[in-house]
Amino acid sequence: MDALKIGLIGSGFMGKAHAIAYHALPVVFPSTTKVVCEIVGDATEELARHAAPNLGFNRWTSEWREVVSDPRVDVVDICTPNYMHKEVALAAIAEGKHVYCEKPLSLSSQDSLEMVDAAEAAGIKTLVGFNYVKNPTTALAKEIIEGGEIGKVVHFRGTHVEDYFADPMAPFTWRLQRGYAGSGALGDLCHIISMALHLVGPITDVCGDVQTVIGDRPVHGAIEEWARVENEDQAHFMARFANGAIGTLEVSRIATGRKMGLTYEITGTRGSLYFDQERMSEIKLYTANEAAGRQGFKTLLLGPQHPDYAAFSHAPGRCLGYIDMKTVEVRDLAEGISGLKPLWPDFRAAWGIDRIIEAVLLSHEQRRWVSLEFPEAAPEG
Amino acid sequence: MDALKIGLIGSGFMGKAHAIAYHALPVVFPSTTKVVCEIVGDATEELARHAAPNLGFNRWTSEWREVVSDPRVDVVDICTPNYMHKEVALAAIAEGKHVYCEKPLSLSSQDSLEMVDAAEAAGIKTLVGFNYVKNPTTALAKEIIEGGEIGKVVHFRGTHVEDYFADPMAPFTWRLQRGYAGSGALGDLCHIISMALHLVGPITDVCGDVQTVIGDRPVHGAIEEWARVENEDQAHFMARFANGAIGTLEVSRIATGRKMGLTYEITGTRGSLYFDQERMSEIKLYTANEAAGRQGFKTLLLGPQHPDYAAFSHAPGRCLGYIDMKTVEVRDLAEGISGLKPLWPDFRAAWGIDRIIEAVLLSHEQRRWVSLEFPEAAPEG
Amino acid sequence: MDALKIGLIGSGFMGKAHAIAYHALPVVFPSTTKVVCEIVGDATEELARHAAPNLGFNRWTSEWREVVSDPRVDVVDICTPNYMHKEVALAAIAEGKHVYCEKPLSLSSQDSLEMVDAAEAAGIKTLVGFNYVKNPTTALAKEIIEGGEIGKVVHFRGTHVEDYFADPMAPFTWRLQRGYAGSGALGDLCHIISMALHLVGPITDVCGDVQTVIGDRPVHGAIEEWARVENEDQAHFMARFANGAIGTLEVSRIATGRKMGLTYEITGTRGSLYFDQERMSEIKLYTANEAAGRQGFKTLLLGPQHPDYAAFSHAPGRCLGYIDMKTVEVRDLAEGISGLKPLWPDFRAAWGIDRIIEAVLLSHEQRRWVSLEFPEAAPEG
Amino acid sequence: MDALKIGLIGSGFMGKAHAIAYHALPVVFPSTTKVVCEIVGDATEELARHAAPNLGFNRWTSEWREVVSDPRVDVVDICTPNYMHKEVALAAIAEGKHVYCEKPLSLSSQDSLEMVDAAEAAGIKTLVGFNYVKNPTTALAKEIIEGGEIGKVVHFRGTHVEDYFADPMAPFTWRLQRGYAGSGALGDLCHIISMALHLVGPITDVCGDVQTVIGDRPVHGAIEEWARVENEDQAHFMARFANGAIGTLEVSRIATGRKMGLTYEITGTRGSLYFDQERMSEIKLYTANEAAGRQGFKTLLLGPQHPDYAAFSHAPGRCLGYIDMKTVEVRDLAEGISGLKPLWPDFRAAWGIDRIIEAVLLSHEQRRWVSLEFPEAAPEG
């Protein structure tokens, strides 16, 4: 297959992360489908003109519609603010482009469903940037679980807690407005939901509690003007999984001290796994079949025997970083679009996550459990 | 005040832990009220006769009623199986004895309420063995929270997870029968509820999920005969606290790999605390007021500047153990009964914990939130 | 055998630790030899009079010679400042008493040798308070090594680093004077040498470096008067073991931040062990025979399958503390003196440690390796 | 300045790591000097032909001399086996090329000195791949030390221990032959020496111990044929630093269980730092000036306030990986060669490390301390 030509929209920090990954891709994974950084778009001429050389793209535009309609573009990569995802994606789909979109997919499950329907009707391929499931440590966890090494999973405890809004004086931004961001911590930090689905399987019922702790924030950090925060600072919910396991999931943007608190503990009948993204290159494994007095959680450091690691280093313990995880993601993108393997999580999967978020919000409002009528299919891959 | 004469009922592992603590008490805390190990009772003559020399008690009896009616006994210490707590305690109260009882207080909140009423009517003093709140690390956490060092508490995540029933072939015992144990993991591991109440304050609403994962277990480890497990293996619930904080609490007796997984993370608006009982002599503290680039969780090792530690060692980092925690508990018992300070958690507080457990079970059954109509008073001390 | 009657000399923090252990002993280890806290001596009548009730001793005296000559005393327990050890021990030996002495044994190996010779000539039994080798975690490490689980030991890296003199304004004390303390950090923190000998075996050659970093300290914290520090703040040395392993050992009393930094990593041809006394109830074990991709350091928490732990708790992960370690030590004392097992480390073993310290100091002075002409016998037990 | 044209020699795992870094460089650090992957050479046509597309180089050759003489090459990047470094570097220098060479620089300090002299005479610029000093965590440590946050450094304890030769059946390779590798663990794992020099400053005296534990290894893993190992498996040495600090450094290729055990603890009079490369995105900092009872080692996670991190991520705690460290290194290479800042560690610095290794070997042979007559200048940068 020919190289995939990427049209990137949005050259902020996430666009940059994607760009680094595109440039690293052919060297890290030399036998995979090639990509070309064809064109980058951003909101102003100023931003876009700099983006091309800075992100290593061939061309630039300040009109995102030029990206989606560009005949030389195969894949539209959407790194815009959340509220634009839908419009851009639908336009790209209408042009028959494959779409790689950052999470959350849109501002509501209804919007997401429109996007799913459009994509599926057009027969184009999609991938959503739940990059933490691309961490080789996650693949290792999946291998351990699917190999039966911890028995049947009975419990999941997951968190994605950070503290970027812990300071009550942190200024008001679009992330705090429903019309631009949708939900708050739930949408921002729904990575933990993707992890739960990926590792334990579909969620059938949820019951949650949601809270906006800091109700007003200063505009531009000025203390004279305050704006009302419109979405949640923290939330947690109980979940029931299709396979019979139960669990709790927690998100927070005010978890003072936690910088990348994406963690899980998965308990099985014969073992357990513990992971913390702040130490993303290791996982703790307990297996009950060790000799008496020799049982304990074992710290596995990523090494060449583990999925994808050998592409980065020939020796164990060298540590992978955030960018490396994105490189695995764009490898999956390239291989998925070129038909070498299924893409996950695609729009449909992301819509499932939106529906879980909305079910949590509904359960909170009505103070009861909410069933997900069409439980998501187990993720592939 | 004269020395308190202890009558201990039950000489198993918990009776032994109490006995060690009684013997260590006058040397660890020389200026506190003295105790005398007066009489020990156990179920058979064989057990009781050995208990006296082994636990260092002056006399013994195989009739527990002789302990509660013994005129030389000031305090009845109840270390029997759960189902006997009520009968023994009521008998002791009827004799005007102070009562020190292991948790859970009884098999139901109704039974516990009877015990509370009897104790309060008789004007005797009570203490229930929620020993983990006696860990000096807990006192340090309380000091940090009450001093405002982490700001206002907004979230609590607590677990008490162990794996003593993780093996599906672990034999059937009285702990798995409602008539002898009451609830399962919730009752056994309700220490985490005492921690939440002690550190964050009263809980006003709960909503939980409860599960018996392994429905049948072999009797005496024989595989021909199986018995039905009558109470829960694992449970978790969401809580709302009177002070506005929200949280999750989780208990499990099948948490493969966790031996003493009593942990909490308490998030405040200006800092956070993390604790794990498996490393009971340390606590992790984050405070947001550190210089930029110099923020992080700090591991505080217990030392002489912290509550009660200096009684055990003159130098920091020497580690306290489980028995030391029990020694602090019997110090509190001795000082409480001699009127030097209030006793907490007393029968009333333990009844509050029972009511929370029952509210969790009810919320699970009815799949909804349950309010605790008379929220517990904040713990003293 | 009848109960051993203890005469304790020195009622400071170490005397207190011994006293707690004596009182806990019969309950923790009910089937072991009994001890009686017969008489306690301290330097003044004031101190000694309070010591008896506070430490739970029957009688007291302000004349230590009365302790050693007391016909009702079987064992003299020496918790005085270092410089008195020799005189007291020789007097006790002359009276035919068994001796339990804190470390370091004396101010020089020559003094220690006199003590060894006297004790051996008199046929009395001795034990020196290298309590960290009594930690059940150490016994577990020894069991692992001797069972061949980590193969042949090839390297030892040990530290005992603390920071009690890290503050340059910490006042001058007897510990800084050769005439009262002997060596500095080497003598104070020679626990790591006892660990190396216990776990790896005799040391045959050493080469070290020694440094007094803070040369003068204020007297009584007053800044007008300064006194010269006479012994070392920090030292490290290379060692060669009789079994062919090599290693490094490090001590420091100015290791800012380390409170109980007694650590070791023992590397074998098929596995490794790592231990840190600040987390004294756990040890990390790596064994090379795990499956590919499933290798890693495993955290073993002490539990009932491990040496001595079951005497303290019936369930794993409950944590032992410093006092518990001393209780194991006095159990060994009681059993050793009553002839149930050999005592280690005795005076001879402690003398061996003194000789290692002096060899390190000599190697530093002469900037060369020093051989220990009569390598110590491997420790028993 | 125009883009630097790179000629890479050696397309194995290290050449690949360099290549990934070159490709990531312009996006990670968009404002830095550009590089062009001009030509790659490897030993056979087969290897070289694949290397060009796989590593993203424009051209290829199976004659390394063609790389060094290529007029379109500005910088020769040497990723060959150690024994070729000297010949290739001298040829490149003769052609007036700048040289970027992997460590160790050569097989002996004499060879390295020839290379230093040639480079300095030719006025070309050099950089040696001691990449761990390029970790932003190292830069943070340096900032902390130089800012006086831990006071005056008094002790350094460093290790670089791995286990790639721990298995006695690991087959014989060129790394075990003096003629191809020079020294063994000392040369391979001398990263810890570069860390010590970078963070604490020049070393003036060393005294070490060196050991080949596994004397013979099977050739090609066949057990019929064995070859003699010619260099050391493990070594440790004591060091004295020009600034008065003392320390120990340890290297091992048979440290069972350690995969990337590059660690250091740096003790200062007012604080301490601890680092472990297996968790390369964090560092532990203790500062003595915290409030009483609130002192402890603090885990700093890398974030945007720290050196270079913001180029990789806008948010803290995202983790950097091995490749990111190499990207910082090639950024330094590009900026150094284009004259924006000094290059360190250059050939002269690497020669200094060779001399330390040889001094350690000499000290081992002669069982005495060895002084480094011309102590290395403190590193820049």
Any overview of this molecule?
- The structure is a homotetramer of 381-residue chains.
- The first copy, chain A, is of the alpha/beta class and 381 residues long.
- The first copy, chain A, has 2 domains: 128 residues, 3-Layer(aba) Sandwich (Rossmann fold); 217 residues, Dihydrodipicolinate Reductase, domain 2 (2-Layer Sandwich).
- Chain A is 32% helix and 24% strand.
- The first copy, chain A, is built from 11 helices and 17 strands.
- A 9-stranded mixed sheet of chain A has the order 16-15-14-13-7-12-11-8-17. Chain A has a 6-stranded parallel sheet with strand order 3-2-1-4-5-6, with helices on both faces.
- In chain A, helix 1 crosses helix 10 and helix 5 runs antiparallel to helix 11.
- The longest helix of chain A has 20 residues.
- The mean pLDDT of chain A is 96.
- Strand 16 of chain A pairs antiparallel with strand 16 of chain C.
